[in-house]
Amino acid sequence: MIVTVQPSTIQGVIQSPASKSSMQRACAVALLANGTSIIRNPGHSNDDLAARSVITALGATITEQANGSLSINGNGVKPAQNTVNCGESGLGIRMLAPIIAVADKAITIEGRGSLLNRPMDFFDEVLPRLGIVVTSNNGKLPLTVKGPLKPADIEIDGSLSSQFLTGLLIAYAAAGAQGVSIKVNNLTSKPYIDLTLTVMKHFGVEVENHNYEVFHFPVKTQQFKAATYTVEGDWSGAAFLLVTGAVAGDITVKGLDVFSTQADKAILQAIMSSGARVSVQPEQIEIGPVQQLKPFQFDATECPDLFPPLVALASYCDGMTVIQGAKRLTHKESNRALTLQEEFGKMGIKIDLQDDLMIVHGGTGVHGATVHSHHDHRIAMACAVAALKATGATIIEEAEAINKSYPDFYDHIRLLGAEIEAGQKSEA
Questions:
Q1: CA–CA distance, 112 with 248 (Å, rounded to integer)
Q2: Which residues carry out catalysis?
């Protein structure tokens, strides 16, 4: 699909999307809880749907309620199938593989698209130390695991992604871990572990966090209990809405919790540093542009998913913006550092990459162009936001990539006044 975005006047009120980070964790824990859990404000992105598919294959029963909530009946990992598919969800595979291995049955885990090329060496190296038989495709999918997982004191590397630790924490709890610890070196994205621990506690299991270096399971019997859980508004998706307001017009975004543990709420810091008008209120965030946005410095090491909206924002800042953490972008849906450099280059914005730094030369004018999502949802959204005040129309190829995390994105910014047309790419 191609989407054409015209320069537009933006104004209005919009509800933030549901957090897929929150949604997928809640699905995983609801599978493990004995009884019926209610998930309010569930997401419906491709990643969310993949998580639902996997937990169903692992024994959960999901019923959609009239009010939009989900009823999930769980009773632990009791696989009904020999194969599950995590779609393109990096969190899905990294979180669910250890959970799947709680069962004494060989299960093959598959994926699609970019997930097939993302490294899974962690499982080959770590899971055998927990009594799990692992077979992978040279560190890539498909991956076959056979448990049961046996919780033990273990030391792991957390530098690639915190998602592996999320999976181990939940799986240890499901396996009844007591008196054991997971030691982590160089943990990245710590706020996402805060989210994991918060969801686990909500469903009845507490883990001691010793300065993000050691996670200890106390010597006491704990098990996940069915609960009612409300999925948070998604700061990752809403970051694009907030940047839309900062560069293109006065908007109000509802449904975001400023006290959330989500790492991507840090987008507010960057927007405030740029000089945009921001008013944070209990139920909503009001945001709008100023005559000239200022360049800023920002460390995105703990929140690498913010790079695309940050680049869209920096494009309209008058000068050189420096964003740290570019090394975290290599193993995303695309190599986002190179992809952002290429696609924003087409729109007239120069981006330099220097080791761990991304330097965006803004204020030079954003031009309409034909760009490509590289099948990366955040690249598609970043280009669409930047296009709103560009000179001329912007055509986004493979624009349906947004379905991975925020399928309503084009509809939402259209509600705010964006002129957007969707169509199929013509045959050559």
A1: 35
A2: 305
- Decide: helix, strand or coil at residue 119: coil
Dist. CA 187–CA 118, nearest whole Å: 19
- Pairwise CA distance, residues 217 & 177, whole Å: 6
The amino acid at residue 204 is G
Cα-based distances in Å from 62 to 42, 131, 331, 396: 12, 31, 32, 36
For residue 386, pLDDT beyond 50: yes
Which amino acid would we find at residue 132? I
Beta-carbon contacts of 359 under 8 Å, excluding residues fewer than 6 positions away, are 320, 321, 322, 323, 351, 352, 353
**How many helices and strands in the chain, by DSSP H and E?**
12, 24
10 Å Cβ neighbour count for 16?
Answer: 24
The DSSP string of 203-266 is TT---EEETTTEEE--SS----B--EEEPPB-HHHHHHHHHHHHHH--EEEES--TT---GGGG
Q: What percent of the chain has pLDDT over 70?
A: 98
Element (H, E) at 81: none
Look-up of token digits 């162009």:
369
- Taking alpha carbons only, the member of 308, 330, 54, 23 closest to residue 188 is 330
Give the model confidence (pLDDT) of 57-68 as tens digits: 999 999 999 999
CA distance 323 to 314: 10
Place of tokens 């990294």: 94
Phi and psi at residue 116, in whole multiples of 5°? -65, -20
Return the bridge partners of 73, or none: 36, 61
pTM above 0.85, yes or no: yes
Hey, how many other C-beta atoms are within 10 angstroms of the C-beta on 223? 14
Distance, CA of 155 to chain centre = 25
Looking at residue 427, its pLDDT comes to 45
Preceding amide of 148 cis, omega within 30? yes
Q: Which of 166, 162, 208 is nearest to 185 (CA)?
A: 162
What is the SS3 assignment for 223?
coil
3-state class of 308 per DSSP?
A: helix
Token duo for residue 333: 């849906």
CB 84 within 8 A of CB 107: yes
**Confidence (pLDDT) at 130:** 98
- Residue 184, strand partner residues: 156
What token pair was written down for 293? 């946005």
pLDDT in tens, 389-416: 999 999 999 999 999 999 999 999 999 9
Q: Is 196 left (phi over 0), alpha (psi -120 to 50) or beta?
A: alpha
The answer to whether 393 and 368 have CB atoms below 8 angstroms apart is yes
